[in-house]
Write a structure and sequence with these properties.
- This is Alpha-L-arabinofuranosidase B arabinose-binding domain-containing protein.
- One of its GO terms (biological process) is L-arabinose metabolic process.
- GO terms for molecular function: alpha-L-arabinofuranosidase activity.
- Residues 347-475 form the Alpha-L-arabinofuranosidase B arabinose-binding domain.
- The chain has 478 residues and is mostly beta strands.
- The protein contains five helices and 32 strands.
- It has helices at 2-33, 113-119, 329-339, 419-424, 466-471, and strands spanning 36-44, 55-59, 65-67, 84-91, 98-104, 123-129, 139-142, 154-161, 166-177, 180-190, 200-203, 214-218, 228-233, 237-242, 250-254, 266-272, 279-285, 291-297, 307-308, 320-328, 347-350, 357-361, 364-368, 379-383, 391-395, 401-406, 409-414, 427-431, 439-443, 449-454, 457-462, 474-477.
- A four-stranded antiparallel sheet has the order 3-2-1-20.
- The longest helix has 32 residues, at 2-33.
Length: 478
């Protein structure tokens, strides 16, 4: 009898464990399958300092967008070229894992387009998360190293393939085939974005026509007659369709009837509207510098169905090639809780020269009166880049740039992700040394020194007398 009870108990425990495991998996899948409530765009912003990093922008309706994290980068690449472009955001089918994959490329400084095309990185930069807000350190994934003569690995995308239970990872590589050197799309399969199968040629256009930007969207219900659609920048924006990611594709047409060609637009991003059977194909108007524009369709089966719309807004900063993820309420709540709050804009007023305010000019920092342009004297006092109970001082007109000391002099500089920079740009806001109604800012990594002005220039100094205490006292004003 006792043995029977023991076996019964073990059986019940096993069933309970199985049910618990099934419940956790079901809960994760349920989150991924919940109705979508918002949109997250991941992108870069351009060739300026910190423009080639990871930015997040949010929308409620898919047409009107707001920058997150006060317009500053959300993630910085500190590996490879120390810059990223063309990011793609991938969600697992269970909704329990996310990846950002991006081109390892930083144009400018010591890298030209010729360098990037012929001698560029053959790796992608990868971040991983289980919740969309806590991300791993970036890592490099070599995707083109085994492609003969490869000069680059650009514009990566990935889509889960239910036919094989893994992801099809695809990107553009510049190499020579049949005596023609150009960009073609290659693909490999992966389960974890840590290792890949041997790369295989995926898309090649006739003759010398290259192809770089390609993005695939899966369409529930096969609206338009197909399960998958892909848009590619190949001298124009070409749309193709298939019922299998790795099967044959049918060319549906292009957008030339809309006077949109690949010489004017690039970086196609698909987006399904949450509340209706309609899609937007966002296109980057790179030649004119106007940023992304949407063309929309309720039936992807023919390119003649696409139309333009003027009712959209992308916020203050220019968006460059990225991707858009439809968000569940749970995902949207986490993202907005982390990066959605907007920190107030302040000016930093001098205590002993109250007509003067901290301002940057040519990235040097001083106190001035009658600051023009006014935004040069506007800052956000945000949570410190390092340390608990600290602050950092971010520029309003240069998001992602902070006041930092170097050799005890102050400059406005972009966060480069290093521990030295972040310590130099972090302070403790304390009661003012000359008046407790005001504030002083003590250095995080040199706690015996404070921000103070001297001959109107900002410095980091020890404070030893009443003049220095007044120089090191400021007030945040709206």
């Amino acid at each position: 009898m006792s043995r029977a009870l023991t076996r019964l108990g073990a059986l019940l425990a096993a069933i309970a464990l199985l049910f618990t495991s099934w419940s956790v998996t079901t809960d994760r899948r349920a989150e991924a399958l919940e109705s979508f409530t918002g949109y997250l765009m991941v992108h870069f912003t351009g060739e300026h300092a910190n423009g080639q990093q990871i930015y997040f922008t949010h929308s409620d309706d898919g047409l009107h967008w707001t920058e997150l994290n006060n317009g500053a980068p959300v993630l910085l690449s500190t590996i490879g070229t120390r810059g990223v472009r063309d990011p793609a955001l991938v969600r697992s089918p269970d909704g329990d894992r996310y990846w950002i994959i991006a081109t390892d490329l930083r144009i400018g400084e010591d890298t030209s387009w010729s360098d990037a095309i012929h001698r560029g990185s053959k790796s992608l930069v990868v971040w991983e998360s289980t919740d969309l807000v806590t991300w791993s350190h970036p890592r490099l994934l070599d995707v083109a190293g085994n492609i003969s003569g490869a000069g680059s690995a650009w514009a990566p995308e990935a889509i889960h393939n239910p036919a094989t239970g893994d992801y099809v990872l695809y990107w553009a590589t510049n190499t020579t085939l049949n005596d023609v050197k150009k960009h073609r799309i290659y693909y490999a399969r992966t389960k974890d974005f840590r290792s890949i199968t041997t790369p295989v040629l995926y898309i090649d256009r006739p003759g010398t026509q290259g192809i770089i930007d390609t993005q695939i969207v899966e369409v529930p219900g096969s609206v338009g007659g197909y399960r998958y659609y892909r848009a590619s920048g190949d001298g124009q924006i070409t749309v193709e369709a298939s019922n299998s990611i790795l099967g044959s594709w049918t060319r549906l047409g292009d957008l030339s009837h809309m006077d949109i060609t690949g010489r004017q637009v690039e970086g196609p991003m698909w987006m399904k509207f949450n509340d209706r059977t309609e899609w937007a194909l966002w296109l980057d108007q790179y030649s004119s510098g106007r940023g992304y524009m949407p063309v929309t369709s309720t039936n992807l089966g023919s390119t003649a169905n696409f139309k333009t719309t003027g009712d959209y807004g992308l916020g203050g900063a220019r968006k460059r090639h990225g991707s858009i993820l439809n968000l569940t309420a749970a995902e949207e709540g986490r993202v907005l809780a982390k990066w959605g709050a907007t920190t107030p804009i302040n000016r930093i007023q001098s205590y002993n020269h109250q007509d003067r305010y901290v301002r940057h000019s040519n990235f040097d920092v001083r106190i001035d009166s009658d600051v023009s342009p006014a935004k040069d004297a506007q800052f956000r006092v945000v949570p410190g880049l390092v340390g608990t109970g600290t602050v950092s001082i971010q520029s309003v007109n240069f998001p992602g740039y902070y006041l930092r000391h170097t050799n005890f002099d102050f400059v406005l500089a972009p966060d480069d992700g290093t521990s030295v920079f972040r310590a130099d740009a972090t302070f403790r806001q304390v009661d003012g040394l000359a008046s407790s109604d005001w504030s002083s800012f003590r250095s995080y990594n040199f706690p015996d020194r404070y921000i103070r002005h001297y001959a109107y220039q900002l410095r980091l100094d020890p404070i030893t007398n009443s003049v220095a205490r007044a120089d090191a006292t400021f007030r945040l004003t709206t």
